[in-house]
Amino acid sequence: MERTREFLKSKKGFTLVELMIVVVIVGILAAVAVPMYRTNVKKAMASEGVALMGSVRTAQRVYFAEHQTYCTNANVAELGISTSGNKYFASFSITAAGAAAFTASTSGTGDAAGITVTIDQDGTIVQTGL
Questions:
Q1: Could you tell me if residue 104 is left (phi over 0), alpha (psi between -120 and 50 degrees) or otherwise beta?
Q2: How confident is the model at residue 11 (pLDDT cuts 50, 70, 90)?
Q3: How many domains, the chain?
Q4: For residue 76, what are the contacts with CB-CB under 8 A and spacing of at least 6?
Q5: Residue 68: which domain range?
Q6: Which residues of 32-71 are buried (b: 16+ CB within 10 A; e: fewer)?
Q7: Going along the chain, which residue ranges are E strands?
Q8: Which residue of 9, 21, 25, 60 has the lowest C-beta tally within 10 Å?
């Protein structure tokens, strides 16, 4: 019996307080990490829209070289841009176009809803909703 008491006294372990402290620390780390993760996921989704707008700008520059004006939304099919492989940005529109400038934009769908990417003739990209 005496050996059993000595064995129990010498046994090491964690107390409930120590375990609760670890749980609190993990909770604080998770509270910081989850918003950062979500922000990075949205930025990754927006990169698809940036790539699409880059294609639009390139096509607009080719169109301008041939016609001395930028393509309008009415004849956007002449740009020949396909969005069939896109997951979050499936369409775009040319919001303003003329002989000297254009502005195009795309809005996210699904998980990327609320993200908008715009570009102009100079290649200035503006992302909103991140």
A1: beta
A2: low
A3: 1
A4: 92, 93, 94
A5: 15-128
A6: eeeeeeeeeebeebbebbbebbebbbebbeebbeeeeebb
A7: 93-97, 102-107, 116-120, 125-128
A8: 9
Q: Is 2 part of any domain? A: no
* Residue 19: inside a domain: yes
Res 85: pLDDT = 80
Taking only the tens place, the pLDDT of each residue in 16-48 is 888 899 999 999 998 888 888 888 888 888 888
Q: pLDDT for 93-110, tens place per residue?
A: 888 888 888 889 988 888
Reported pTM:
0.69
* Residues 69/122, Cβ–Cβ less than 8 Å: no
> CATH number for the domain including 62?
3.30.700
Burial degree of 129 (CB within 10 A; 0-12, 13-18, 19+)? middle
Give SS3 for 4. Answer: helix
Residue 92 lies in a domain: yes
What is the distance in angstroms between the CA of the first residue and the CA of the last residue of the chain? Answer: 67
β-strands 102-107, 116-120: how paired?
antiparallel
